[in-house]
């Protein structure tokens, strides 16, 4: 039996549990680290152990822990999980824009002899970017376009302006590091591209809110000595969380 622990009980975790059901009992969700008040509202947790803290989750001895929560969850629990010798899948990969924390995570990985794995967010094509990096990359650009409802965390007056706008509005334009740190809930794709390409500082990012958009659109372009690459992915937002696309859950697997 392969035991999986989860951090978080929101949209990604719920969809992940549903996707794994056909693999039971070979694959089992052995426990979920989440606030009990939140967990009580989630149906799939009725027969699942709820860990009140990271030590309780570690004591359940999962073979792998999947973070489905937030940057703060990775900061709070990531090192302890790795030091315990348990592998960790990180979906909130924008947290690695914080270089000191990334170094601390690497040290914890070495100490515990456990690896951490990064999901690619809501996109594909990173193999082409990775291959192009072996040559000389001159430019890497990411443009993310999401419905206005995906930006619920913005300051209230700005959000009202976006919701009532007739045209798309650029929320951010700059490097991937600032995008990941300033807009953590909408920049995991930018972080994935930066990590696979030329780094956070040299990856240019545009984040756009489009009041007329019904889907999440990710446009990636890069050029170098091997040529130019342009591709886009249009994904249907998850009903549980409009910031992410449905297939992100399968990609996490």
UniProtKB/TrEMBL annotation:
<keyword id="KW-0560">Oxidoreductase</keyword>
<keyword id="KW-0521">NADP</keyword>
<feature type="domain" description="Aspartate/homoserine dehydrogenase NAD-binding">
    <location>
        <begin position="8"/>
        <end position="118"/>
    </location>
</feature>
<dbReference type="InterPro" id="IPR036291">
    <property type="entry name" value="NAD(P)-bd_dom_sf"/>
</dbReference>
<dbReference type="Pfam" id="PF03447">
    <property type="entry name" value="NAD_binding_3"/>
</dbReference>
<dbReference type="InterPro" id="IPR020626">
    <property type="entry name" value="Asp_DH_prok"/>
</dbReference>
<keyword id="KW-0520">NAD</keyword>
<dbReference type="GO" id="GO:0033735">
    <property type="term" value="F:aspartate dehydrogenase [NAD(P)+] activity"/>
</dbReference>
<comment type="similarity">
    <text>Belongs to the L-aspartate dehydrogenase family.</text>
</comment>
<dbReference type="GO" id="GO:0050661">
    <property type="term" value="F:NADP binding"/>
</dbReference>
<dbReference type="InterPro" id="IPR005106">
    <property type="entry name" value="Asp/hSer_DH_NAD-bd"/>
</dbReference>
<feature type="domain" description="Aspartate dehydrogenase">
    <location>
        <begin position="167"/>
        <end position="243"/>
    </location>
</feature>
<protein>
    <submittedName>
        <fullName>Uncharacterized protein</fullName>
    </submittedName>
</protein>
<keyword id="KW-0662">Pyridine nucleotide biosynthesis</keyword>
<dbReference type="GO" id="GO:0009435">
    <property type="term" value="P:NAD+ biosynthetic process"/>
</dbReference>
<dbReference type="InterPro" id="IPR002811">
    <property type="entry name" value="Asp_DH"/>
</dbReference>
<dbReference type="Pfam" id="PF01958">
    <property type="entry name" value="Asp_DH_C"/>
</dbReference>
<dbReference type="InterPro" id="IPR011182">
    <property type="entry name" value="L-Asp_DH"/>
</dbReference>
